[in-house]
Write a structure and sequence with these properties.
The chain has 245 residues and is α/β, with parallel strands linked by helices. Helices cover 30% and strands 16% of the residues.
Length: 245
């Protein structure tokens, strides 16, 4: 079976959103270290390898928004599609206390191999989808409740953005109105890295955008993923209508 570094769902849907999931899976392609980065199954199931639960939310949201979705099909530890090609964290050798054996001695040729195998095809496909007229990019991610040696993160959801907050600011306002939510405003981390996926496909083209981070213990199974998508979809549609973008 031919390896594909991404999955596209609903390419012919008419909605304006393009739902992206950069860290959808913990797959290691067979042409990278024989498909094994040298980590245990438990480590590959952690947030260090992918965004736990994010793919299910992204798929469900895309369906509810009648919009296409694109999801990566390679672990962020193989190569991180949400980093610029010149970002020093493009290939992680140590992540949240875990050494990645297959990455420790990866040289420039190996990084170029992974870029060509996974990263560049994903971004090429995303660029084609984003080129539809009037596209609004919605990037779905998840975050761990606690990094090693760090404080417990109190947010259930965060909205990340850079200088273009046309969608993000009203989205945050609507989420704040939900009485049971603690909402992160550019938390649990800043919403902009030069060359990241939103920068590359939204900011550099003037496309409206927002990045949603969900705490991964809240979306660990399909029912919770569906429930969050059902909660967020009408809010997103309301925000888009109100902004008149």
């Amino acid at each position: 079976m031919t390896y594909l570094p991404y999955h596209i769902e609903g390419a012919d849907r008419s909605g304006r959103w393009l739902v992206t999931c950069d860290h959808a899976t913990n797959t290691v392609p067979p042409d990278i270290a024989g498909g094994d980065l040298g980590l245990s199954a438990a480590d590959m199931a952690r947030h260090i390898a992918y965004d736990v639960g994010a793919a299910g939310v992204a798929r469900a949201l895309a369906t509810l928004l009648d919009s296409p979705a694109i999801l990566s099909n390679f672990s962020r530890l193989a190569i991180d599609p949400n980093r610029g090609e010149d970002d020093p964290t493009l290939l992680m050798r140590l992540y949240d206390g875990t050494i990645v054996p297959a990455n420790r001695h990866a040289d420039a040729a190996e990084i170029e191999h992974r870029l060509n195998l996974c990263y560049r095809p994903y971004h090429d496909a995303l660029a084609k989808l984003a080129a539809r007229p009037a596209t609004v990019i919605l990037s779905i991610h998840s975050f761990t409740p606690k990094l090693q040696g760090k404080y417990i993160r109190p947010w259930e959801i965060g909205v990340l953005y850079a200088h273009d907050a046309r969608i993000a600011r009203p989205l945050i306002d609507h989420l704040h109105a939900e009485a049971d939510l603690t909402v992160g405003d550019n938390e649990p981390y800043s919403g902009h890295l030069p060359g990241d996926a939103v920068d590359r496909h939204a900011l550099q083209h003037g496309r409206p955008n927002a990045l949603i981070e969900l705490r991964n213990d809240l979306i660990a199974d399909e029912p919770s993923q569906q429930a969050w998508a059902a909660r967020l979809a009408p809010i997103l549609e309301t925000v888009l209508a109100q902004t008149q973008l």
